[in-house]
Amino acid sequence: MTSHHFHAVIWIDHKEARIFHFNPSEVERMVVHPDNPTRHVHHKANSIGSGHAAEDQNYLRAAVEAISDAGAVLIVGPGGAKTELVKFIHSHQPKLISLIAGVETVDHPSDGQIVAYARKYFKVTDKASPQIV
Length: 133
Known about the structure:
Layout: E1 7-12, E2 17-22, E3 27-32, H1 57-67, E4 72-77, H2 81-92, E5 100-105, H3 111-128
Parallel strand pairs: 1-4, 4-5
Antiparallel strand pairs: 1-2, 2-3
């Protein structure tokens, strides 16, 4: 990363994590992919288990590493992967919990839409709590 940006947003699902470190005028983008992308598992009636494959720990670790130097992080995504990421942070990197500014459900936006959403989100939350670097 060429410069440090206080804010970051990570859009995550089970196929990829798109991470953006940004300020009002600059954006740095990174993409992390799981080693073994999960396929949709259809749950059969009367079968044991939830029908969901366990999340790839290396994938979550790489995603956490990509956001660990931010001052505040917004976690967004369409489904359960964002919750899995938060649980992973709680279990493996509890010091980073304080970086999580929010967790929001966002479907499949473009990169520009993700950054615009995060800038708007942080514009509101920064008024409530100033940035401390």
